[in-house]
Structure formats: C-alpha cells, structure tokens
Amino acid sequence: MRFPIKTTIALVVLGGAAAASYSPAKQFLKDRYRVLYQEEEVSTGPVVFEVNSTGTVQPVTSYHVGSFVSGPIVKLNAKFNDPVFKGKELALVDELVYKANVNRDQAALDTRVADVQRVNALLKQAEHDLNRAEALRKTNKDFVSDTEWDQFCCNRESLMAQLKLAEASVTQAKASLDYSNAQLEYCKIKSPTDGVVIDQKIDEGQTLAAQFQTPELFVIADIKKEIYVIATVDEADIGLIKQAQKTEQPVHFTVDAYPDDLFEGHIKEVRMNSTTTQNVVTYPVVVSVKPNPDMKLMPGMTANISFQVSERTSALRVPNSALRFFPKPEQVRAEDRPLLEGVTPQADKEKEKNKQSTEPTPSAREKAAANRKRTHRHVWVADGEFLRAVEVVIGINDSRFTEIVSGDLPAGSKVVTGVGLKAQSQNQAQVTVEASP
Fold first, then answer.
1. pTM greater than 0.85 (yes/no)
2. Would you state the torsion angle of the CA atoms of residues 307, 310, 314, 316, taken in this order, to the nearest 10 degrees?
C-alpha cells in the first residue's frame, strides 16, 4: 500500500508543478517569438518634391568665327581659353594681294575723276561755242548756217551725256575701291563678341581657301555672364516641370568635376522638339545659370539635376517606408483585413490574370479618376497585439519623407515601417556580446 500512495503523491506533485509552469512557459515562448514591429515617429519638418534628371552644360551662344578671304595666316593673336572682347583682332591673313587691289582701284577711281573733269571742260567749251553762234544768228541769220547750228547744239548734248557716263564711272570705281577696302579689312579676323576662345582650329602659317566654303577658325562663347544646362526630361515629368517653371522654383545640380559644390539656376524654357529613344520620349529643358564668374561650369560637363517642383517648410510627414509596408493578414485586426485583399503577390497575380481575361481595358476617364485617388493611402500603427490601419491623404514627397495632408495621425505618434522576430534580435545581440573582447 505504501508504494501506490507514494507514486500517487509523486504524480500529483509533478502534475501540479507542470500545471504551475505551463502558463509561464507559454508566456515565455510567446514573448520569445513575438513579432517586433519597427516603428518611427510622425514628425514635422521640411519636405521638398523634386524631379531628377541629367543634362549637359552648354554656352548660351557659340560664335563660329570664319574667314571671308583666302590667304596664309601671318599672325595669330588668340589661342585656347584666351579671354577676348568684341572687335579684338584674333588673326591676320596676308594683306599683300588685297593691298594691291586697293591701289589698283584707287588708281582707277582717280582716272575716272580726271575724265569727269575733262568732259566738264569740253562741255563748257561747247556751251561757249553755242552761245557765240546764237549771238551771230541774232545779228544775221546768214552768218551761221543751219547745219553749223545743229552741230553746235548736238555737240553740247553729246558732251552732257558723256559727263553723266563719266560720273557713273566714278561711282563704279568708288564701289570697286570700297569692295577692295572691305576685303583688306576682312584680312583682320576679329571677335564678334566678348567671351572666351573655347576652340581654335587654325595655326599660324596655315593657308585659308574661302572660295567654296567658309573655313572655321575659332569658336567663341561668353560663359561668364550666363550658361545653359540642357536637361533631358521624360515626358511623364514635363507637366511637373512646367508647373515648377510657372511658380519660379529653383533648380539645383552638381557636376562630377566639383562634387562638393551645389549650383543653382532656373528654368528658362521647355522646348518642344522631342526625342524618341527606344520608345522613350524625352524633351529638352533649358536651365539658365548666371553668373559663372569662376568658370567652373565648362561646356560639355554632365550635370546631375534636381528640379524643385514644390516645397513645404513645416509639414506633417511620415517615412516613405511606412507607406511601403504591408503586413500579413494575421498581423492586423479583423476589421482591417479586407484592406489587404489583393496585396499579396499571389492574389495580385490572380487579380491581374482575371482582369486581363474578363475585364476590358479601363477608359481614359477611369484612369484619370484612379490617378486622382492615388493620394488616399493607409499606414499601420500598433494596437495591442495587432496592427490598425489609419487612412491618410498624402501630398508631396522626397527621398525620405511623405507629407500627410489629412488623417488621424498626430505628430509624435508612431507608425510601423517593418517587422522582425524578437528571438532573432536576441540572438544577434548574444552573438555581438560573445564576439566583443
């Protein structure tokens, strides 16, 4: 009898101990493998919405300086990167032939002027002869015959015509002389504007041949006062760029040559000449930067551009990761689980498959209405052991935060941005402690 009694007592004690330790063990396992939520606070601060793009630095206007005359270059007064002013002599073409042309045309002009003087003298003599003949005819008509009278009259008219011809020859000679002087002046290659020589395509001693095509000698641009950045913007962002241009938002960009310097400009124009590359339509957007006193921005540089579209200096904001977070259905309250329908990849694939097989393509009106509703989103907050969905209306966003326009989400509250197992955290902490010296 003693053995059964002792056995019964031992079993009762063991059963009581097991019953007493069940709840703590259950709570321990529950706490050990409980899902931990990564949370961040809803804060107030600046949010800047920007459109990013790339572009190329270009001068406002590039002046391609050529030569109107032919001949060897006898003097070169400008080289690469030299600053020049309007009217400065950049190079000189040999003037020997053109000076000879000027001297020839000057001599021709002098000859034509002398010829005018000669005709004037003959015309004066003819008028005197005519006057004397007229006086004699008044005395006696028989003193001057009709034939002689006609000769005097026609001689004067002929000399008057010769005078006009001689005066026209003077005008023609002056034009030829002006042309030769212009060609002589064109031997001096001058700068058409203030700027910098960004390209030199001629050397001293080289011969120019301008009969068939104008040779290009220099490329000059004024990059100190103003310079352009030509950005390539996707067609989907052109509406935002025009909005930024209308509100005169600034444009910021960097170049690889000076990665620590932030340059600022403004949108000059949105050009309409689109470019299609592999079915991607882009438009050039001109960004004006002025001034450029240090000339850090040089033609051809690649710029990484951020077009500021809008800015909020003190906005209620949440991290972007809070909007990207989607929990599992078992982690949320029962009343919020319908919000997750179609969110899982498998359900999303099935929905898309059914949509393609049964539903027609949405109309433009339906697409526009859906786009207007895209600002209505949900974020998740911890509510006991489950998560609760909070509907919000979002505004602009940047790379880190999104503006909250409306919703039951005060500043200082916490939103869920991710999940992690407590056991994993503890194991990582234990490994870290063991690895430390």
1. no
2. -100
